[in-house]
Design goal:
The protein is mostly helical and 175 residues long. The chain has two domains: 69 residues; 68 residues, no CATH class. It has eight helices and no strands. 23% of the residues are buried.
Length: 175
């Protein structure tokens, strides 16, 4: 099967499974620039139109750029292309960190937030109550993941704190 550009012919994106994933710019955006815009759009901190305009895009241009990058990332995932997926991970991490402001939550605040989510609170609301954006939550999650990786005992302490907070919530409900 011949690979065709997205939108050619019958408008179905044909992907040659044997070809390497294309990494050239799409609409003037490389992977890192696409990731930065996608993270900002997804964070919903700024108006979507403002995010796109800051990159010199409008909705029509984004409607071309986004599906091409998403197809490329899907193809990379299907092929197990660690280089492309690693570049995507690095680009999204950098974009999330750029959006996240302020300090990482304290150990106690982090455990309380995890307990709220585990108890069934709406994650977005719990994260906002914890004073974090979604990008800030992702940054804190990476930070605590690294700390736990360096000190496995911290995982046990975190789980114990979360269990205590969950028990306190149950006790408060039952009076």
């Amino acid at each position: 099967m011949t690979a065709r550009a997205f939108g050619e012919g019958d408008c179905r994106p044909w992907i040659d499974a044997t070809a390497p994933v294309a990494m050239d710019d799409v609409g003037g955006l490389g992977l890192a620039a696409y990731a930065a815009i996608a993270v900002r759009v997804g964070a919903r901190v700024e108006a979507r139109a403002d995010v796109l305009a800051s990159a010199g895009l409008d909705e029509a241009a984004w409607a071309v750029v986004e599906p091409i990058w998403l197809l490329r990332l899907a193809a990379a995932a299907q092929r197990g292309d660690a280089a492309v997926l690693g570049a995507w991970d690095a680009a999204t991490t950098a974009a999330q960190d750029a959006l996240a402001c302020g300090p990482i939550p304290s150990f106690e605040a982090w455990a309380d937030l995890l307990a709220a989510i585990e108890a069934g609170d709406d994650p977005a609301e719990a994260i906002a109550r914890g004073g974090l954006s979604l990008a800030g939550f992702a940054r804190a999650q990476r930070a605590y993941g690294a700390r736990i990786g360096a000190d496995p005992g911290l995982f046990d302490a975190l789980r114990a704190r979360v269990a205590d907070r969950l028990e306190a919530r149950r006790a408060a409900r039952t009076g």
